[in-house]
Specification:
166 residues; single chain; 2 strands; rod-shaped; 3 helices; two-stranded antiparallel sheet; mainly alpha
Length: 166
């Protein structure tokens, strides 16, 4: 039985070896096909990566354009809001110029029924002071319109003082 087992083992080994050789040859042929497939997949992956980058860049550009448009719109709205605020403050000053005000804080504006010399003098002084302030504010605002940074700081300080007084 030893001899028959050895022959059988050799035969099975030969069959197995032949099968492995066939598989090796076919895998070599497949590897060429696989190489072509891998090259194709690499090209497709590269194309996909480029497409993603282009799309990402396009999305980023659109987002930046949208943000720029929003920023411009916000700046325009801020400008209109500031103009309305300046107009309101100017109108408010124009309205209170005819009233006397106390020196207490917050100031109380009043109009006496009958003026005497002192109230007329205070009213005239107040109108003169308000006219000077209005001129200074107008000059400062024109300087701001021309882009003078020192004038912007002066206008900001002037507005703060006016708000504290009213």
């Amino acid at each position: 039985m030893d001899e028959s087992m050895t022959k059988r083992s050799k035969r099975l080994f030969g069959v197995l070896n032949g099968t492995l050789m066939k598989a090796k040859k076919s895998s070599d042929r497949k590897s060429e096909a696989e190489k072509r497939r891998e090259e194709l997949e690499a090209k497709l992956a590269e194309k996909l990566r480029k497409d993603k980058e282009e799309l990402s860049a396009e999305v980023q550009e659109l987002w930046e354009q949208k943000q720029t448009a929003l920023r411009i719109k916000r700046e325009e709205e801020d400008g209109r809001r500031e103009a309305r605020s300046r107009d309101f403050q100017r109108d408010q000053k124009r309205n209170i110029i005819n009233f006397l005000q106390t020196k207490a804080h917050p100031a109380i504006h009043y109009l006496p029924k009958n003026h005497n010399a002192r109230t007329l003098e205070l009213l005239t002084a107040g109108k003169r002071e308000m006219a000077l302030r209005t001129e200074a504010d107008a000059k400062a605002m024109s300087d701001v319109a021309t882009g003078d940074d020192a004038a912007e700081a002066e206008v900001g300080a002037s507005m703060e003082v006016d708000q504290m007084e009213t």
